[in-house]
Write a structure and sequence with these properties.
It contains nine helices and eleven strands. The protein is of the alpha/beta class. The chain has one domain: Rossmann fold. The strands form four sheets. It has a five-stranded parallel sheet, sandwiched between helices. Helix 4 (89-102) links the parallel strand 4 and strand 5.
């Protein structure tokens, strides 16, 4: 496994990855890092991106470098509701990134992943004072380990992925309000000690993206779990969780 990162890459090296470090917009270095790679996973930025517009510029460099390096497939992490005319800046950026990779050289897969269950995101919502805004937000949380398994499954499905651009939904197995989910994860949601407080720009992105949409209802979009044969795990039950699967 190879990784390209900017900044501290200690955890990636500890996980056994061969790491190349450099700036995101260094096309030549990116291209060299992608040489002889079959699949590139473009993580990009998520809910804590301080500048969604910068994500589009970075993705353009990645798409060009992947094409020049002869990469066979690109997997792009995206969000439910991603579209170039979406209401919030992050989903607009993700929609344009999907469009960019759809027209690039290598076949591409956009994984529209629901709320990813990580400590960093939980801390950001709680430390940023957004718990009240999360009371009416319904999500289908995905465990980070399940997302990793899904990405690996799509990398392995090299003979069946086909050509062109594929949009895939990755929703968790249950729907619940985000506030209820966060309270299950943290019994002291109003505690600030030990939490990482997001920067004001990152908090602004999170606040605007928080209200969704978090449901993928387009019948054309492929269900990632069905395609891969995987079964995602539950992040935790509760009275506000639905009794059935989230996927249609």
């Amino acid at each position: 496994m190879r990784a390209y990162a900017h900044g501290d890459a200690t955890s990636l090296r500890a996980a056994g990855a061969m790491v190349a470090t450099g700036e995101v917009d260094d096309e030549g270095r990116l291209e060299a890092a992608m040489e002889q790679a079959h699949t590139v996973v473009h993580v990009g930025g998520g809910l804590l991106s301080p500048d969604p517009d910068a994500l589009e510029r970075d993705a353009d460099v990645v798409a060009t470098a992947a094409t020049n390096a002869g990469v066979q497939r690109v997997i792009v992490l995206s969000l439910p509701g991603a579209a170039s005319d979406a209401a919030d800046p992050l989903r607009r950026a993700k929609g344009r990134i999907e469009e960019r990779f759809a027209t690039a050289g290598p076949p591409s897969i956009a994984l529209r992943v629901n709320w990813v269950d990580t400590a960093a995101i939980t801390d950001a919502v709680l430390a940023g004072g957004l718990l009240g805004e999360a009371e009416d937000v319904v999500v289908a949380p995905v465990r980070s380990e399940d997302l990793l398994e899904l990405v690996v499954a799509f990398d392995r499905a090299r003979s069946s992925a086909g050509e062109g651009h594929l949009v895939v939904a990755a929703d968790g197995p249950e729907r619940c309000t985000l506030a209820a989910h966060l309270r299950r994860r943290d019994p002291a949601p109003h505690r600030l000690t030990g939490r990482r407080i997001p920067s004001p720009p990152a908090l602004a992105t999170l606040r605007e993206a928080l209200h969704g949409p978090w449901a993928t209802e387009d019948p054309v979009v492929v269900d990632g779990w069905d395609f891969s044969g995987l079964e995602p795990g539950h992040c935790g039950g509760g009275p506000e969780a639905s009794s059935g699967p989230n996927r249609p």
